[in-house]
## 1
Amino acid sequence: MTDAVSMGPRRALALLASLGVLALAELGAGSIAYRETLDAAVWGRVQTSVDPALPLVVGTGWLDPLARRELPEAARPRTLGAPDLRSWPRFAVLTYGRQRDAFEHLVADGPGSPAPAEVSSQSIGPLRLGIYEHAGAPALVDDLLDPAAHGVPELSMPARDGVRCRRTDDGAVCKHGGLELGRVTSTLAEVGERPRRCLEAVMADGQRVVLTAPDFVFGDELYGHVGFAGMNARLRSDAPVTVTLRRGARTLGTFTFTDDQGWAALRAQTDPGRAPLIVELQSAVRGTWGREGYDAGQPHPVCFELRSFAGEGAA
Amino acid sequence: MSAGRRHLERARTDRRLGIVGAVLGLLTLMVLVGTAPKVGYVRDEGIYFEASRHYGTWASLWVRAPDKAADPKIRDRLFRINNEHPALMKLAGGVSANLLARPPAPGSADERRATDRPAGGRLHVLEEGTAMRLPAMIVAALGVVLLFFAGVRRGEGLTGGLLAGLGFILLPRVFFHAHLHAFDVPVAVAVLAVWLVYQRSLDDPRFALLLGPTLGLAVSIKHNAVFMLPLLGLHYLACLAVARLVRGQRLRVGQCLPAPFLSIAVLTPLTVLAAWPWLWRAPLERLWGYYTFHREHAYYNMAFLGVNYNEPPMPVAYPWVMTFATVPLVLLALVLLGGAWGLRRELADVRTSPGSPAAEPSWLRPLPWGYAELEETGLVMLTVFPLVLISLPSIPIFGGTKHWLTAYPFMLLLAAGIYPRLFQWALAHDRLQRLRHGVWRHLPVVALALVLGPALAATVDGHPYNLSQYTAAVGGPRGAASLGLNRGYWGHAVLPLLEAGRTDAAPGPVYLHDLHPLCMRQYQREGRWPEHWRSSRPRPQGSALMFYEQHMLDDEVDIWRGMETTTPAELITLDDVPLTARY
């Protein structure tokens, strides 16, 4: 084949020059991209800048394991598994530059909550440590997951005869004979590709469990989340869970969630005061569907948390 | 210059190019073998190592007890393992280990059991894993040589050859996969060989005879090569269509039964059968099993732009964006330029009658000189096809960029076609004429340093974790992590953690997470695995490995729960981005 289509010298020269500029730009960008930027000195400066009294959120997803290795504040289960940002009037956010994907997830996890505002920030090497405040946010009154206040709530299965429920080291379990029908554990779980500190309930097919916190302090609203843990290996589950909230004998609301909703928020208006909080959970089936069809053997843990809030911004 | 002098000059140049090509191949092999011990064993290699030990046993039976090797029961027992992939590379790995592997490490379970070839190979020169990887590394080096010569032809000189050969092996993902006892780089090289043989086969019966076995060997490496048959058919039909419809050339009956395709029809299946002893007993039934395995290959996880996909369809943009994110921009720009210019040139060429063909077409020489070759169209088709295939919504999620590595040799050939010509055209400028002579005439070769620099920088930076490497255009590994692109998926980034384990800094037992138990066995055989690291669930008094992938967070949470800590003890990072943790 002949070079029937050739190019003028000027055009060829322009293209070569463009390629040269592109290569130089790539090499320049590579000299920034291809190096470690987080050394011990950077982490040391972060450590001295972090206020241990403030919750520390790692706002850049990929930075999280590094931050946990270097900063005890980043490895605390309470902040690591935070349901959203609503509980904290003031907190710190550590990001790599302005990459805030994990922080934005947490903001989105609290729909209806006031947006936190950055009140100060400092750059430490490539890292950025910001202090955020929730101006005029509702105040946290009580937290079902507060071990000092509630431990793990009492577990019962009122619709079944012959069921015995008892406490375990980290939760409670109900059995009928040797058969486990329901188990609740206070733990960290993965929901929607984020760690969540929650009460994890696993129920046999069609079973209903009831959790009671006899001494819960209500505010103006109950705010919480429900999600299904460990969904990653599955194609889908489909089986919903129904959550009913009661204050004593009065029903505050009934909610139905599926795995598709991820970490779904729920809220209910309440009157302030101390009263029993009763949470009923009922799942249809606990199994899952995969390429071989329905597999009843897979656990289907429901992960939930509830807090009460009072003041401006609460429902 | 006389004809004799010109011939001599040409012979000298050819010899010089031959030496450069051979040196390139040798250097590639040396670099790959030298850098391989730092590349941890990927999940798939674990099973391929095990398969190679079985297949190698069969190969050694041919020497020691041929009657046993010919026994169908023994053969089936040895080839049953990993029969969802053809045997060729694993058999080659087994033979390589029979020759070169060191024996299992003293004290390892395999050494104590004194089973499957405890004495290692005949020459104890390489770790068993490296010995098994060697055939794939040799094929990769051959690929560089093939690309060099094909690039020399397309670029009409050394520059095109260097760009094609070095451009291929310096791509971070290619460099990574070229180390592995796996099929992805070998099949990319084999597919390139099929194309080069096919081109010659249209006008040379000797190459027509060679085409069937070449395609057979390619298919015996990996199934991707099967697609070459329809693609070559399409290309051949396009050539005939251009001859008849554009140039008005008469078609002959012999062109309907061309020797290259007859060779494929007869010799390809025979070669596949010969190279895969598992098929010998029940060829059709076992081929069907092979087909259905790959057709239902649907539930891998792959992260793309922050979303994890575990069932098809992947977004259509996936292979295109990943190619953009893993192949340096300057090379991609050259590929696009080369493709566009090549197609334009070919369009102009087919409209121009080349005069009478050199010979009458026949079944033996179906497209002699004077018929359209459509080389550029072929290269563009072979570049685009693997990416289009992965883009199809009905295609199972196979995984990462390795599944379209078959496109990369052809991409580099497109680049090699345009790059030297840009210099030729530019230097035709009145003011630049002097750059065509003296030391300046080497400018295109010297400027290759600039063109290949971004790939080299990325590969050097990423080694031995180039499966997680990304180009500067997306911000390297940090930028890709922020964009939510896949960080790794093969449980291989672990070697520094094993070193800590061997010094007792890391207590056992250990939770392996994504590290394949057969990879652990391979490390044990080579004395690289900490003795006290037995596999277990996460527990407070042990260690746990965690390989970061978007869908793996639930495993990390399991580690936190099992080990009662959320603080990793050690991390392997690539440019700050965590790849693997040890708790």
Note: The two ends of chain A are 77 Å apart (CA to CA).
## 2
Amino acid sequence: MRKIINIIVAIGLLVISTGLISSAFVSNIENKTQISTEMWIKDGEPSSDGMACEMNVAKDGNYIFDIIWRSRNEDTPQFLTGIIIKDANGTEVLSCTGNEMDMESTPIALNKGVYYVNFYTLTSEEDANDFRANHNTGLTLSDEFKGYADNTKCQMEYIINMVPETDITGFIRIITGAIIAIVDGFFITKKLLTINGQKRQYDERQTLNRGIALKYSFFTLLGYNALVCLLAFFDVRFPVSIGILLFFGILLGLGIFTTIAIWKDCYFALNEKKRSLFLLFTSVILINLCAAIMNFNYANNEMALMSTSIVILFVFLLAVAIVKTAIDKKEADEE
Amino acid sequence: MKNLKLKAARAAKDVSQDDLAKLCGVSRQTINAIEKGDYNPTINLCKAICKALDKTLDELFWDDEE
């Protein structure tokens, strides 16, 4: 049982460290924009025209646009959407037209800065022809497109992904990040499973309490994942991706296990020095803080959010460990 | 229920919780939890504590009121 607990804790920390180290060294600057809106055409007039958003390019390079738009229900949009992406000077970078779209652009050289994405609703063939002539775009129509409707309604979802073109330096960075993560993971696992080459020793009360902590952590994680699945099933829109939500679940489980274990005096093994773990916690906080700052700078908001949440968790755990140590010291002095 | 017999026996031998914990191979908090009645030790740990304090199981862990 003790071994299983150790392995689970090791896997948790391995996942976290892999994520943070990779995020710090791998320049994964994906920039994603997702808009979900109800569009309707009444008497040939669109509900909204001129919808716009911004995308931030953190550094010069070649980028590939992955553009998807589609209906979120059974209805096929009986109108076209035109998208134009312009740089800050107003120079057109990319444009495309269609009623539904799933396209990947060729690599486009972009400079650092803000790019503006404008959405246009085209409700007639004349509008569409004008738009295509002015912006020199192709046209994508799905098989279900039955012509322009004067009165129609559709729940639309627009997703624009801007991904840096993977070149050899990017590949080297990914490999470097992976090697560092593996080495780091190896040392953390070794550190967690042994102390100076010896097995971690817990007494019977500690083993019992670790089991209780693990039980609470496991059922919390199970409940959390069930809740996320339920909300996803009912099509609830999350402010972050499912991957991030699941990561939060791991952090929640880890946080609950560690907090209970520290509070019930069963986190530190009998043959373990608390100071080394305080140093480990502090280094995790510092590394993640760096990763969060780097990711915010690269506008890689999801990775920054992950690193920030790890910082918050470990600051909390460090505080719990410090308070508990102080209580223990006071208790031992009084005794 | 607090185990005052254990606390008294430990005090009589002038052994701290930490020292007794080391003799028994457990944490100080475990000894503290036993004394406070927050944890019921296994028979193996009871035996280890008795050996460390030169007492019998009856002397330390038998409840006279029963």
Note: The first strand of chain A starts at residue 31 and ends at 42.
